[in-house]
Structure formats: structure tokens, C-alpha cells
Amino acid sequence: MKVFTKTSLANALELAFTYDEYLHLVQSLANEGKSTGEDATEAYINYTKLNAKRMQRWDKTLKFSEESVSLLKSFPNKVNWLVFTESWCGDASPALPVMNKIGKINPNISLKIILRDEHPQLMQQFLTNGAWSIPKLVQLEPESNRVLGTWGPRSSNATQLVEAFKKEHGTLTIAFREYLQMWYNKDKGQSILEDLLLLLSLK
């Protein structure tokens, strides 16, 4: 796959948050009635508050099967996972806890998080269908910053739901976004996990 300029990726990794640092940031913003990004609308602030609660809940309830844990422990290589997101991103609230748990199971997988709007030139290199869709995970070889794969903004199963709704209704409604969060809760992170196992070539 294409090798992007090492400097920009290296700088982003140096500036990136750990998961715990990012979670603290989101919680602090929620408490202060703020959000990331320049456009801190009331909606974004409300989504930030929701996401702070959702990530805490996911961290407490998320479980992987013994088979998945065994597969993850068998991954032998070191990789960096660099994730673009924002505090208000609803699809990130279930995805980031799954990624964090994977990194805890196998320390070879290092999770780092950056804010999309603070890195526009870098984000422009990782578009999804021409859009700045988030969360966007970029899997990197640590030594060279060679891009080994990408994931996002949703699991393949969730993407099918979104595309079907868009095809019928044209755009995503607030009601659908609420439905999608309920779907994530019922799925319990398993669709995201399955996709990430594929990204690691463990499936």
C-alpha cells in the first residue's frame, strides 16, 4: 500500500492521545458544556455528553469470547493504530472502547487518537468515499509508517444498515441515529471486533 510522508504521520503519533487521555478529554468537555472542533454547536455538545457516558458504559460492559481473546493474543507483530475522531462522533463511542480492549489484550497493538479537525491535511489522505468520515482507523507499521490497512467509520454490518437507509430516505435522520446506537448496544461490539480481526489478518 502507499507510504505517506513519514513526518506528518510521525508528528501526528507524537501529538496523539492515549485512550485514557482521550476519554478524560471527552469527560472534561462534557462537564464544561463544550465539544472538540471549532463549531461547538449545542448538538455537538449534547453528543459529547452522550459519548462520555457511552464510552464509560462500554468500558465496563464490553466482553470478548475466549476464541477472540486467543486470536488477539496470537498476533505477533507490532502495529500502531492511529484513529481520527472528534468528541461528538456517535460512531466512535462504541468503536474506541473495542479498540482499547484489543490493545490491552495484545500490547503489540498501540492505540493512538487524534482530532480530525486539527489534522486536515492528514485526514485528506484517508477519505471514505470522498468524505472526512470518522472514526477512521489507520493501521501503521511502526518503523516505516507504512499503511497496512484502514477501517471505519463503521463496521461492515453497520455500514449496510446505513447505506440501506440512505438509499430509501436520502439522508440519515435523528431517529435513525438513535436506532443505530441501540443496534450498537445489542451488537455489543462484536461486529467491530470481527472487522478488526480481519484488519489484523486473524480471520
Q: Could you explain how this protein is built, in words?
A:
The chain is an alpha+beta fold. The chain is 53% helix and 12% strand. The chain has nine helices and four strands; from the N terminus they run ααααβαβαββααα. It has helices at 6-15, 19-32, 42-61, 66-73, 92-105, 120-123, 156-169, 174-187, 190-199; strands at residues 79-85, 109-115, 136-140, 147-151. It has a four-stranded mixed β-sheet with strand order 2-1-3-4, sandwiched between helices. α2 (19-32) crosses α3, α3 (42-61) packs parallel to α5 and α7 (156-169) packs antiparallel against α8 (174-187). The longest helix is centred in the N-terminal third of the chain and has 20 residues, at 42-61. It is globular, with a radius of gyration of 16 Å. Mean pLDDT is 93; it is low at 1-7.
Descriptors:
203 residues; alpha+beta; disordered N terminus; Thioredoxin family protein; Thioredoxin-like_sf
What's the arrangement of strands in the largest beta sheet? 2-1-3-4
Say how many strands there are.
Answer: 4
Described by strand count, sense and barrel closure, the largest sheet is: 4 strands, mixed
Radius of gyration over alpha carbons? 16 Å
Helix content: 40-55%
Structural class: alpha+beta
Number of helices: 9
- Cα separation of the termini: 20 Å
Contiguous runs where pLDDT drops below 50 for at least 5 residues = 1-7
